[in-house]
Amino acid sequence: MSSSVVSAKSELQLLAERLKRTREAKNLNQADWCRFVGIEPQAWSNYENAVRRISIDQAIKVCVATGASLDWIYRGHLSGLPVELVTALQAKIDKRSRYKAVNLREES
Predict the structure, then answer these.
(1) Residue 101: which CATH number?
(2) pLDDT for residue 28
């Protein structure tokens, strides 16, 4: 497999993770999220699972509904996001980090 294919896949996975983190920051399951942003559930599942790359039109729906930016969705830049979204995103990261740390200690 060429490095450009690996890089493209990694970028798609990072994009998918940011989409999932954005949804989780709003404390919504996929069904409620899809109603909230106006995206079909199967399409959203494909985006979150890195099966397909979210289109600009669909990403704009996420931005309008949440205040997220295209820079966040496509590039991972937090600048320009609403404070409450950044706070929620950070809380999710912190919670996952604590969970991983506890699991690592239990395995030792």
Answers:
(1) 1.10.260.40
(2) 97
